[in-house]
Design a protein that fits this description.
The protein is 36% helix and 22% strand. The chain is built from 7 helices and 8 strands, in the order αβααβββααβββαβα. A 5-stranded mixed sheet has the order 4-5-6-7-8, with helices on one face. A 3-stranded antiparallel sheet has the order 1-3-2. The N and C termini lie far apart (59 Å). The model has no long low-confidence stretch (mean pLDDT 95). This is Winged helix-turn-helix domain-containing protein.
Length: 203
């Protein structure tokens, strides 16, 4: 195969390309949202975003409930319905930039691995649960390899969500995760405001 040496693009050109990719992935986002996607310093991202607007590759917009302006990718398509179900890693783009997750979903999320056990709000390794276009719950999970079990040590539903619906969908997703991890059993603990309902669904 032929090997070519290609010169690195100028920094401003590379930043514009990265920000345009971030905008395409987000659909719409604030300058901070788009800058964080590829860890571009905000002070450098702002002029690049304005250049993309001037070139017609992005447009400015306002989003109801957001206190700052946003940028919209021209190719964004708003789906009629969002279907999906997933337990999200703390490093998933949906929740990685915490201010965006809180702004979009009203979901305050913090990784508590380094928080002393007695001061943790939800648990050691907590995964958000995405259902459709909502973050509806969170689960403190542990893979118990010695016991061949997936432990849901704490299960918490968000305010205003239907507990029966969330528990049913979450139960199926926990089974799917256990299978992926090659674990034989899902065990639900007693901690959290959804634990009782989830145990009943799985009984």
């Amino acid at each position: 195969a032929e090997t070519r040496t290609v010169a690195s693009p100028p920094e401003d050109e590379a930043q514009r390309a990265l920000l345009l990719t971030a905008a395409r992935c987000h659909g719409v986002g604030t300058a901070a949202d788009l800058a964080d996607y590829f860890r571009i310093r905000p002070a450098e991202a702002h002029p690049r975003l304005e250049e993309l607007v001037a070139d017609g590759r992005l447009s400015r917009c306002t989003v109801e409930g957001w206190s700052v302006p946003a940028y919209r990718h021209p190719g964004v398509v708003i789906p009629k319905q969002v279907e999906g179900r997933a337990l999200l890693s703390p490093f998933d783009p949906v929740v990685w930039f915490r201010p965006r997750a809180e702004r979009l979903f009203g979901f305050r999320y913090r990784v508590e691995i380094y928080v002393p056990a007695g001061k943790r709000e939800f648990g050691y390794y907590v995964l958000p649960f995405l259902l459709g276009d909502r973050l509806v719950a969170r689960v403190d999970l542990k893979a118990d390899r010695a016991g061949d079990r997936l432990l849901a040590r704490g299960v918490f539903v968000e305010s205003g969500e239907d507990r029966e619906e969330v528990a049913g969908e979450l139960s199926s997703e926990l089974d799917r995760l256990a299978s992926f991890l090659d674990l034989n059993e899902v065990v639900v603990g007693r901690r959290g405001n959804l634990a009782k309902t989830l145990r009943a669904v799985r009984a």
